[in-house]
Specification:
2 domains; five-stranded antiparallel β-sheet
Length: about 350
Amino acid sequence: MKKLALTCILLITAVTLFGLFNPNLAISFASAKSPQVLSADGEPTLQEWFNMNGYAINVTRDETGIETFPAGYYKVTILTEIADYAPMNNLSWYLASNGQLNYLFLGENVTGDTAYFMAGENFGFCLGSPEGYFHTEPLRNKDGKDHALVFINPNATGYIIAWEDLWNLGDADFQDFVLAAMTSVNVNVCYCPRTLNLKSQGRWITAIIRLPKEYKAKDVNISSIMLNETVPAEQDHYAIFNCKALHLLVVKFNRTAVIELIRNSLEGAGCKKRFTEVSLTVTGKFLDGLAFQGTNKIRVIHFGCGNHRAHTAKESLCKFSYHPMDTHATSLRLLRVCHANRRS
């Protein structure tokens, strides 16, 4: 037993001493034991960073090959930036149809910095560094290389994108800039009045927002709600309705501002129909920063078609699909909101 113990001690000592003179071997032993150990250059690899931060992603198997992303309202958060160029890098998004860059982050940023944007069509992201601009679409990159790895986020709805910021892929570590692009929660929305006379003198346009059953209206940040990313909701004029599994938020927008928004969107449109339908999108955030969005159409009397009769009460009534467990009283309250809005 003494000989066996002495042999074990000598073996352990030899491995330890050999590891001291062979750093690569020492690191490989430690790495096999714990993914938190840094790589040889003192930086965690992308896989190690995922492991350390609770993302069940396999860098080799889970890369999606996605180059552009679907339209919507997005929350973008910097997860980490491990790069010498970090103080000089920038991040932007662009529409796939024109490639024009819209900056989200410029210069010195820190982990956790967040930005929101609304894309009306498919789009991509672009990381700018002193060595070039590197898009999620490799064909747009001057070196022709794929500088972005795209993964499905296992912890939230959306994507994780990891970049290499050096020309011709440099050291190809892909942890120079890592971000989370979270898609928004989809909500149902309807507008009152349903038909809008652009010459009317009313005060408000009302939006009734129905949230998914797992979300509550009281958790919405009212000050974040916007219409088409242009017109803010009135913070002093809103109501919350909760009835079992039904959660509704009623907000108001300045009618004059909405009419101006619609006029701008219809500028140059021909007068082919008596009524024109315009899509309006409500966006906002919950108190924890999670984004939501909902789109519906409002019918307007085309301002280029001459004078028409004002909208009737029947046209103004808001049609809304209520949850089967909704009470009749709640429905009546909502209809009163629509009628009150029409008269104001």
